[in-house]
Amino acid sequence: MTTQAKRPKSQAGSERRFHNAQGAEVKTRDEAFAAQRDLSAEAVSTDAKLELHNGAVTFAIEVQYNPNTYPHVVTGGKISSGICGAPWDLTGGFIGETIRLDAKRTGQGSCATTITIVGEFQNPSAYRGTYGFDGASSSFKHTTRYQC
Questions:
Q1: Are 111 and 89 in contact (CB under 8 A)?
Q2: With bands split at pLDDT 50, 70 and 90, how would you rate the model's confidence at 112?
Q3: Do residues 129 and 114 make contact, with C-beta atoms less than 8 angstroms apart?
Q4: Phi and psi for 52 in degrees, rounded to 5?
Q5: Contact 106/90 with Cβ under 8 angstroms?
Q6: Cα(56)–Cα(78) distance, rounded to whole angstroms?
Q7: Neighbours of 42 (CB within 10 A)
Q8: Which one has a higher pLDDT value, 116 or 8?
Q9: Which residues pair with 142 in a beta bridge?
Q10: By the 8 A CB rule, do 48 and 127 touch?
Q11: String of b and e for 132-145 (b: at least 16 CB within 10 Å)?
Q12: Closest-CA residue to 84 (of 100, 117, 107)
């Protein structure tokens, strides 16, 4: 024998309310899930500041990513200091349970032309992994943390 608690009926009966992605109330479920044509660029891009640490070296990284994906797809950003030939433009990657950042040197100098940073998430909010230059990704160890 099983018992079930009866769900209390609301005063509105079976009336349902729907909201779209912006939080505005709409009349139907279809309107709630309809593609929004008036989305701003902020809706598909946000940013985070990271610091990569490798002993005495610290890279300042600004990552732009799509918060509507998971893992979050990197859509741009830059490594602005701490690395030879800075700045470096982020050209791709993702942030999730693991991280991968790919960048291309845009600054002056005789340094490598690309960098790849990889790592695994750890608490408190950081990634531990490796990075390398010109196609390598395991040359140097790092800890990359979110900058508060």
A1: no
A2: very high
A3: no
A4: -95, 125
A5: no
A6: 20
A7: 8
A8: 116
A9: 129
A10: no
A11: bbeeebeebebebb
A12: 107
* Category of 67 on φ-ψ map: left (φ > 0), alpha (ψ -120 to 50) or beta: alpha
Which residue's structure tokens are 């859509």? 75
Rounded to a whole number of angstroms, the CA Rg of the chain reads 22
Q: Model's pTM, two decimal places?
A: 0.70
Alpha-carbon span 58 to 78, nearest angstrom: 14
Within 10 angstroms of residue 43's Cβ, the number of other Cβ atoms is 14
pLDDT score, position 29: 77
For the residues of 68-112, what is the DSSP string, one character each?
A: TSSSEEEEEEEEEESSTT--EEEEEEEESSEEEEEEEE-SSSSS-
Residues 64, 46: Cα–Cα separation, whole Å: 6
How many helices (H) does the chain have, and how many strands (E)?
A: 1, 10
Dump pLDDT digits (tens) for 6-39: 555 545 455 777 777 667 788 887 877 776 555 5
